[in-house]
Amino acid sequence: MEYTRIENTEHPLFTKAWSLYVKSFPSEERRIIRTQKKIMNNPLYHFEIITDDGKFVGFIMWWDFEKRRYLEHFATLPRLRGKGYGKHIIETFISRANSPILLEVEHPDTEINKRRIDFYQRIGFVLNEYKYEQPPHTKHGDYVPLMLMTYPDAVSQEDVKLFCQQYCEHASIYHYMPVTD
């Protein structure tokens, strides 16, 4: 599989990736296109398109903070799910990481949410029990109650606090822009 970092929305596969993003995440957990365009200019942010033999498979969007990588969004095409692509993508992401990894998951109150948590746990992620809310992705959006998973070990509340500070420092300016789209 090939991983291609894109830095603007003009890339030929951006439209496919964006369509998958919109279908894969609820509106309160994703950006609008205008803020996505701006955030792609941040050198800490990575929007990677994943292809296999030149065919679009999915994407992975992540932040490279000083002491932690934050896996913000990840999805594969629905028709490819259950075929090992997701596991391969996450294991590759782990192998390229030079620091611990953090990601967010929904609470295990539905069967799909439980399966998603199990997926990450099978790869080696740890579910942390700290209270956590994802900052809004739009100006008038709400905080979203989520849970944090980390690799390779659990994190302390102090680590979570540091992550939240770093994330807000680099990404929150995009979260609170006026929504006119």
How would you portray this structure in words?
This protein has one domain (2-175): 3-Layer(aba) Sandwich (Aminopeptidase). It is built from 5 helices and 7 strands. It has helices at 14-24, 33-39, 85-96, 111-123, 157-175, and strands spanning 2-6, 45-52, 55-64, 69-76, 101-105, 126-134, 144-151. The radius of gyration is 16 Å and the shape is globular. The model is unreliable at 173-181 (pLDDT under 50). A hairpin with a 4-residue loop joins β3 (55-64) and β4 (69-76). Helix content is 34%, strand content 29%. A 7-stranded mixed sheet has the order 1-2-3-4-5-7-6, with helices on both faces.
Question: Mind telling me the CATH superfamily name?
Answer: Gcn5-related N-acetyltransferase (GNAT)
- Poorly predicted residue ranges: 173-181
- Helix/strand/pairing category: alpha+beta
Q: Quickly give the CATH architecture.
A: 3-Layer(aba) Sandwich
Number of strands: 7
Assembly level:
single chain
Taken as a percent bin, the fraction of beta residues is: 25-35%
Rg result = 16 Å
Number of domains: 1
CA-CA gap between termini: 35 Å
Gross morphology is: globular
H/E series: EHHEEEHEHEEH
Overall mean confidence score, pLDDT: 90
